[in-house]
Amino acid sequence: MKKIVSFCFIVFALLIQIKAQPPSDYYSSLEGKYTEELKTATHLAIKVHLRLSYTALWKYFQQTDCMPDDTSRICDMYSSNITYFSDYSTLNKEHCVPNSWWGGPTADNEYAYRDLNNLYPANETVNMSKSNNPLSEVGATTLNNGVSKSGTSIFKGFSGKAFEPADEYKGDFARTYLYMATCYQDYTTWMKDTTGQYQIIIGAYPSIQPWAINLLLKWHRQDPLSLKETTRNNIVFVLQENRNPFIDYPQLAEYIWGNMKDSIWHAATINIKDNTITQPTIYPNPSKDQIHINIENSSSSDFQYDIYTITGIMKLSGHSSIIDISQLPTGVYSCKITNQSKVYINKLIIR
To answer: How far, in Å, are 12, 112, 134, 249 from residue 151 at the CA level?
Structure first.
């Protein structure tokens, strides 16, 4: 437990701003596409990923959902209760997009059921209240704990039971829904109804109910990316080998559903704030004997590396730019590099 918690501390160390860094060619297939074609290209870019163990989720949550100021404590977007990884009995493993909407954990749907991009630790009482109701803005409430609300929707287009997260997490929820509607647009088991309850619907485009598009884009715009989201996206990529594109490129949602719909996507013209320090590179990667760390305008004495297993156990640490990895078992690792008060998390594959 101590070693796993230490991994979380590394990720959030000093609340350093970490920008989501997809591999250089990860989204190259999106270039020149627009609207429905752009959404399908995004789907194909993120569709293939590892199928994680559902029973191991609390081990993964210790990496993805710990508090930055106290890594023994769970980050719960559903309540303000203080809960620790040492005792998470009052929390559930919550499917943000309800798993019943696509038919649950069947043999054909296991990847969606185990997708860490859609799974969060959640207060059990709130989770039960949320049930399989859609996201919305609510009026009369049946639950209001100061963070989450359940009640009757007052958002135009839907008037049934709904769930409303805190303002600070509305963007997180919206981008999760946009991800699920894109990653699993090829699923034919999405539920149908005439009320609009099931916000994600069958089909490659738009894959979301019209009223829900308006709601999710509103929240996406009002609650911009946080350090929590970008960091989580990087860690999920190490664990699961795919990313949430609406965290990497928030503008993508506008090009697919919003005010830039029917405009051609050119990544070079998208205004993304760049880091001021060059991202370190590790090569060769994959490797089996030795790796090199290269940081522009830095010597090995300027940075520290730490190599961890995906369960958070540190295996190597030091300052050298040349690292002998020949004694490490094959597998996927995280290489944390600290340079000039900046922290970077790199995926490392040892063969």
So the answer is: 35, 27, 11, 32
For the segment 159-192, what is each residue's pLDDT rounded down to a tens digit?
Answer: 999 999 999 999 999 999 999 999 999 999 999 9
Counting residues of the chain whose pLDDT is more than 90, the rounded percentage is 68
Question: For residue 258, how many other CB atoms are within 10 A of its CB?
Answer: 16
Which helix (H) or strand (E) segment is 59 a member of?
helix 57-64
DSSP string computed for 115-153: -GGGEEEEEHHHHHHHTTPPB--EEEEEEE-SS-EEEEE
Q: Residue 290: phi, psi to the nearest 5?
A: -150, 145
DSSP 73: B
For residues 104 and 160, is the Cβ–Cβ distance under 8 A?
A: no
Which token pair is 214? 């308006």
Q: What is the pTM of this model?
A: 0.75
Write down the pLDDT at residue 259. Answer: 92
Residue 299, burial from CB neighbour count under 10 angstroms (0-12, 13-18, 19+) = exposed
**Residue extents of the structural domains in the chain:** 18-269, 281-350
Which tokens go with 335? 């290489």
Looking at residue 265, what DSSP letter applies? P
Regions of the chain where pLDDT drops below 70: 1-21, 271-279, 296-301, 310-312, 340-343
**Cα(181)–Cα(96) distance, rounded to whole angstroms?**
12
Domain 281-350 fold: Immunoglobulin-like (2.60.40)
Which residue do the tokens 């690292």 mark? 323
Query: What sign for the dihedral angle of Cα 309, 313, 318, 319?
Result: positive
- The pLDDT value given to residue 271: 52
Q: How far is CA 178 from CA 3, 42, 147, 175, in A?
A: 34, 11, 22, 5
